[in-house]
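User: Structure please.
Assistant: Input sequence and predicted structure:
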Amino acid sequence: MPQARIYQPVHNPMQSGKAKDKWLLEYIASDCRSADDVMGWTSNDNPLTQLRMQFDSKEDAINFADHRNISYEVIEPQKSSVKIQAYADNFN
């Protein structure tokens, strides 16, 4: 049975917006990795580890995983606290 994680990705630090509207379902890689002797690449025998699926809501991602018998872990987003401060407060 494949395993996956469902989460909201963090926003790009180069952008100022806080909107997080998409949820991702990402398959967890198994520990069956092997190294190619000639090229030195690391490979995995499971092609699902390269798959990331976007959903509009957490419930859609959970329903998708339930209908396809995928065991999943939901990672809730952390709430960020905003400290509102004026520039003049730096000189107090």
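The radius of gyration is 19 Å.
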